[in-house]
Amino acid sequence: MKVLIAPDSFKDSLSAEQVILSISMGINKVDASVTVEGLPLADGGEGTMEALTKATGGEFHSVQVHDALMRPVSARIGLLDGRHTAIIEMAEASGLEQLAVCERNPLLTSTYGTGELIEAALDLGCRKLIIAIGGSATNDGGAGMAQALGIGFLDAESHEVIPCGGNLLNIAHIRMEGKDHRLKECETYVACDVTNPLLGKNGAAHVFANQKGADSQMIEQLELGMSHYAGIVQGEMNTNFSTLPGAGAAGGLGFGLMAFLDGKLQPGFKLVAEITDLESKIRTSDLVITGEGKIDSQTQYGKTVFGVAQLAKKFNKPVLCMAGSLDKGSEVLYSHGVTAMFSLINKPMGIEEAKQNATELLTFLSENAFRLYLERLNKNSHG
Asked: Cβ distance 37 to 3 under 8 Å?
């Protein structure tokens, strides 16, 4: 028997690799002769760079850049294909988790550090860029990223504007002359796990800015600035990406990557699945086990578990799903290829206790789930 373990990370608890190890230990307690293949996955959010780099045998390269508040920070780039391809995760530089709760303010934060990561990838000779844009602390429309790559933003008096969410309204002109010429040689793909437009009630500010530290007044200010900025970009570059799905991702970084780098937005999971050759690995497996920290009604909208289940359904492979928690609406996954779902919580406990004991809980859960699967398999084969 061959079992493929293809999970996302359990946020704030276990990396995808640690999830694979825990599940493998549970399976081996039942039957050590089972062939287990582990494939760490992600959907464009945090962990995508690490999952793709490890899954494809790439290497990591660390660089000094700036965080969302322009403080020095060390961040990594994943290098594949003999350094021809770079995997960049914006959260490594401009992520929300880099900031303390009291520091989160999308009027002040910038994607400048993400632009520095792109610049570093170009310096290393990479000409194919895959940029994962989940987990941002920003709402600057990608203007900070563009500035780091040589694009200038000027006010009405031709003074330089430092791009951040609160300064977008001051931009009157975009200076493209200094744009890094190497970007013309690049293919840029953007791994995105949301489909929001840039503006309006479903846009970057109204949907995501609150979780980045904005109150209702700040959200209106951000929306006004973003609308103005989008108009300047459209007028000066003769482009209009603001209504496209994903333009509002990462505080409008999706928009900025399309406008300034000719970025091609793709569902994060789809991009990861293609690079890791997930479909062929599922096709040659007898059982697929996947999972992530929380499963709910939103999981069906491009998350890892949903994507794995859909591919497994195509080949009629059973899918067991392990989760930190199973919330309301998770049952919809049964109609999309998931055979059974299991939660780590096996007794009354708080979230922090569950996170601290996640390895042991997942190993125990996997052992019992696999015992049940084998029992059903044996009964069916003798039925």
From this structure: yes
Q: How many domains does the chain have?
A: 2
Q: Judge whether 301 and 44 are in contact, CB under 8 Å.
A: no
Burial level of 136, CB count in 10 A (0-12/13-18/19+)?
A: buried
Helices (H), 141-267: 143-148, 204-208, 216-237, 249-261
Per-residue 3-state assignment (H helix, E strand, C coil) for 1-36 = CEEEECCCCECCCECHHHHHHHHHHHHHHHCCCCEE
- pTM (predicted TM-score): 0.86
**244 in Cβ contact with 265 (< 8 Å):** yes
Which residue segment(s) compose the domain that 344 sits in?
2-40+277-381
Domain CATH for 368: 3.40.50.10350
72 burial level (CB within 10 Å; 0-12, 13-18, 19+): exposed
Query: 34 and 52: one domain?
Result: no
Instruction: Please give the Cα distance from 364 to 370 (Å, whole number).
Output: 10
- Digit-coded pLDDT (tens) for 85-135: 999 999 999 999 899 999 999 999 999 999 999 999 999 999 999 999 989
Q: What does the CA dihedral 173, 177, 183, 184 come to, rounded to 10 degrees?
A: 110
Please tell me whether residues 218 and 116 are part of one structural domain.
yes
Compute the distance between CA of residue 253 and CA of residue 246 in angstroms, rounded to an integer: 9
End of a domain among 269, 302, 334?
269
The two beta strands, 35-38 and 319-326, are unpaired
Residue 230 to residues 238, 322, 328, Cα–Cα distance (Å): 11, 42, 37
- Tell me, yes or no, whether 247 and 137 share the same domain: yes
Closest-CA residue to 142 (of 265, 254, 245):
254
The CA distance from 218 to 204, in Å, is: 13
Instruction: Tell me how far CA of residue 33 lies from CA of 1, 19, 27, 40, in angstroms.
Output: 8, 20, 10, 22
State the Cα–Cα distance between residues 23 and 89, nearest whole angstrom. Answer: 26
**Residues 6 or more apart from 171 whose CB is under 8 A from it?**
143, 153, 154, 155, 161, 163, 228, 229, 232
pLDDT tens profile 290-313: 999 889 888 888 889 999 999 999
For 164-190, b/e burial (b = at least 16 CB within 10 A) is bbbbbbbbbebeeeebbebbeebebbb
Residue 368 neighbours by CB under 8 Å, 6+ apart: 26
Looking at residue 194, its amino acid is: V
